[in-house]
Amino acid sequence: MTSLEVYLDFATSLAQECGQIILEASITRYSKTKKVYEKHGNSSDLVTETDKMVEELIRSRIISKFPEHRFIGEETTAAGHQCELTNDPTWIVDPIDGTTNFVHGFPFVAVCIGLTINKEPVVGAIFNPFLNQLFTARKGNGAYLNLNTKLPLSHPNPPPILPSNLSQCLIVTEYGSDRSPMVIGKKVQSIHNMVSKSGNVNSSNKNAGSVHGVRSLGSAALGIMEVVKGEADIFWEIGCWEWDVTAAIIILREAGGLIVSGNGPNEEPVDILGRKYLAVRAGSPFWLENCGMLLKR
Ligand code: 2AM
Ligand code: CA
Ligand code: CA
Ligand code: CA
């Protein structure tokens, strides 16, 4: 077995184990494990005992199995702290992506375990125990759903529309937990640009809607997985974190997708710590140029 195979096996079984814990914790809605706390008094930034417990489990497993590796996790990172990414093997973990969904029982909740080497994501496992969907990839070996279905999906029913224009795209984005008027105002303006009749700068038909639709799942990682599957075309988000995207980046790339930083097409390779991500599914990179133009306005 190569070392990447060992790392992916480890990440996959850990994600499955943690998914089971998350599922069980969610069954008793008002149990201690689902006690909800607001982070820094922000009512849209939640954390539960399960977030903390799962992260601690993952961290301790990594420390005992790979003591020389580094670890970055959402719940062990102090607020406002800028994580440092080195060339060392570094596990970047979100114990629960979609905490608000977890609290409400909305079934888009995932544990995300990614590994970077030389600052590049090389292994990723993302598991949604509510929908029983496991996404895995290691560098050079393709991406898989539930271990044996190759990604992107090739035979969904009906088959995916391959857009020839941005106006035919389904876009996924998130509102995030920072609800300050400036941050949310920019986000809403961008969404307005995407959906308004005059929003598509590339459309010759000014009455055409700008894009087919904009979706928000409450889990950035699972939003990117929709792009990986080919069920959405573009994921765009400013404000999410390295633990939301590290596992997703390698899965997306192994499924033929592209991810860049920020709003535009000229920023590859993506800055993992940059908190601005624009991902497109396998297919024509023209989307990048077009959506860059749209989102910048
Ligand atoms: P979380 O559930 O792990 O906190 C919906 O808000 C999505 O964005 C989730 O993936 C959520 O991760 C993530 N997120 C959390 N805080 C955010 C922020 N300040 N800006 C953008 N996304 C954020
Ligand atoms: Ca959070
Ligand atoms: Ca997250
Ligand atoms: Ca989280």
UniProtKB/TrEMBL annotation:
Instruction: State the needed cofactors, names only.
Output: Mg(2+)
UniProt-recorded Gene Ontology molecular function terms: inositol monophosphate 1-phosphatase activity; metal ion binding
Keyword check for Nucleus: no
Keyword list (alphabetical) reads:
Hydrolase, Magnesium, Metal-binding
One GO BP on record is: inositol metabolic process
Reaction(s) the record says it catalyses: a myo-inositol phosphate + H2O = myo-inositol + phosphate
Q: Would you say which domain of life the source belongs to?
A: Eukaryota
PROSITE patterns named in the record: IMP_1 (PS00629)
Q: Which Gene3D superfamilies match?
A: 3.40.190.80, Fructose-1,6-Bisphosphatase, subunit A, domain 1 (3.30.540.10)
| The keyword Transmembrane helix is annotated on this UniProt entry | no
Pathway listed for it is: Polyol metabolism; myo-inositol biosynthesis; myo-inositol from D-glucose 6-phosphate: step 2/2
EC number in record = 3.1.3.25
User: What family is reported?
Assistant: Belongs to the inositol monophosphatase superfamily.
Q: What is this protein called in UniProt? A: Inositol-1-monophosphatase
Species of provenance = Funneliformis geosporum
Q: What is the lineage of its organism?
A: Eukaryota, Fungi, Fungi incertae sedis, Mucoromycota, Glomeromycotina
